[in-house]
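User: Could you go from structure to sequence for me? I need the amino acid at each position, not a summary. Structure tokens:
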């Protein structure tokens, strides 16, 4: 996905408030760059990946912090106003455990955005543990997330399916 496509895809889910955001499973930085165009000037983006991109990302509006870390490890980061996970959670064999770990760094009422493929069959090695929107809604009840809203769909390059963008907030414990 190109950066402009990512901007168009996530724009409706990004609040226009300055803050700290984490892009978990940032990969090459496509969604980090998209967040940079959508968040107000002076926001901070933590681009987190177990294998961070080798290329230097150049942000125009936000401060960039690159963090080398797997999403199942305990985070030593400030509390975030928002978190985006784009095509990442499907790598976790235990997504509820992963979500519980990630949500420790999200403030109460902070925005959580998930982008996943609407698939029921694994497509190894790229989508080993697919998570449908319905499955994510069920997971949200098991962790501190409000009922997710499906904001957008985008046709997938993996056949006749699509990617969904879900948005929800962290509930009080």
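Assistant: Here is the amino acid at each position, in order:
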């Amino acid at each position: 996905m190109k950066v402009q496509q990512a901007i168009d895809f996530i724009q409706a889910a990004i609040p226009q408030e300055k803050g700290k955001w984490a892009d978990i499973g940032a990969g090459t930085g496509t969604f980090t760059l998209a967040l940079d165009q959508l968040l107000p000037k002076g926001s901070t983006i933590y681009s987190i990946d177990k294998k961070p991109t080798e290329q230097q990302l150049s942000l125009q509006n936000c401060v960039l912090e690159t963090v080398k870390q797997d999403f199942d490890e305990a985070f030593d980061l400030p509390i975030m106003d928002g978190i985006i996970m784009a095509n990442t959670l499907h790598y976790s064999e235990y997504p509820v455990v992963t979500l519980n770990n990630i949500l420790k760094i999200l403030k109460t009422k902070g925005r959580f955005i998930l982008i996943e493929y609407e698939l029921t069959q694994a497509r190894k090695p790229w989508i080993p543990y697919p998570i449908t929107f319905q499955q994510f809604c069920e997971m949200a009840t098991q962790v501190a997330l409000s009922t997710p809203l499906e904001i957008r769909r985008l046709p997938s390059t993996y056949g006749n399916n699509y990617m969904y963008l879900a948005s929800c907030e962290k509930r009080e414990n």
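One structural detail worth keeping in mind: The radius of gyration is 15 Å.
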